[in-house]
Structure formats: C-alpha cells, structure tokens
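Exercise 7. Predict the structure of D-methionine transport system permease protein from Enteractinococcus fodinae.
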Amino acid sequence: MNWFEELLNNRALETALPQAIWDTIVMVGISGIATVIIGGVIGIILHLTRPGGLAPMRTLYAILSSIIVNITRSIPFAILMVALIPFTQWLVGTSIGPIAATVSLTIATAPFFARLVETALREVPTGTVDAAQVMGMSNGQIVTKVFLPEALPGLIAATTNTTVVLIGYSAMAGLIGAGGLGRLAYNYGYQRFDSQIMIVTIVVIVIGVQLIQWIGDKIVAAVDHR
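Solution. The predicted structure, encoded as tokens:
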C-alpha cells in the first residue's frame, strides 16, 4: 500500500478532519465578526480623538492607544490565551472548546484590527474631510459618509489580514483545548506521529488562507476606484 492509499484509508480523515474544519470555521467566524465590530469602533475613536483629529481628546486617545491597543498587541497570543482562562470561564462558562476560544481570539485581534482601521482612515485625503466640514456635516456624518466610504478598500484589506491572523491564532488555541485544525495536528501529528494528518492539516490551513486572501483581494479591487 503506497502513501496515498494509506492516506485515503486513514480513519482520522473521515472522523476528525471534518469536525476540526468546522470548529476552526466557528472560531474564526465568531471572533472575526466580534473583532471587526469592537476593533472597528476602537479604530474610529482612535482616529477621531488623536491630536489633529476631528474631536481631539488627549486622555482618551492615550488610554486607547498606549494602554489598550499597544499593551494588548505586545502580549504573545499563547500567553494572553492562558492568562484569559479565568475570564473566559466566567464569561462563557467554560475554558475549552471553540466558543471559549473566541474570547481570547477576539481580545487578541481587536486591538490589531483597530490599529489597521486607524491607519486606513488616515489615508483619507484631508481636503475631502475639509470639504465635508465646509458643507456643515457633523462628525458622525463625516465618519459614515466620508471616512468609511473613502477608506473602504483599506478597511477590507485590514479585515482580510486580520482573518488570516485569526486562522493562525485558532491553530494555536487548539493546543489548549479549543479544538479545530490545531488540535487535530497536535493530537495526531505530534502525539501519535501521524505525519499524514499533519501534512493534510497544513494543506487545509494553507488553502484556507489562500482562499481568504484571494477573496479579499478581489473585493478590494472591486471597490477601489482610485
């Protein structure tokens, strides 16, 4: 029996791989939505309250930028994930499983996404914002009718990059009981020395990342009219 025949007859591919893929989709999907919402709001506030922004607030900007965003981003995900176990247990009632992993995944990636959003909004031409102010738009109207539409390609690119990061983090979360492809690779590839499952897991992750990047690039190309 050759390598491919052994691979096709590997029971783990039928029993564990589909569930691992689904767990990864659940983790990335839920935490991705939460990250875009929470990180998007923080990113907009960072841009508005920064020095020279539409509503500069030095103290709030310092707290969000230096404490929440920078400190959270500086903590390695593996350490952050372990440190958040008590909080996760309190919030969702368990510290294992894909739903529990979405807590640490969201907290780890929301600050990262917020900084990308802030950067994307800074690329909106100042002249466009000035024109909106001359027309009498409020700050809320400028955000919804100027900043977000003008920065849409950058925001979609930021979402794509964050989703790719989430896939990598979800694999790490699998090592402490989150399930998913990371757990599958650890259980079969590391503990049972099943190189076939390890290779298949890597291929699935690579295909997933490539697919998300391709979709993201296509959407950016469609909405970018510059």
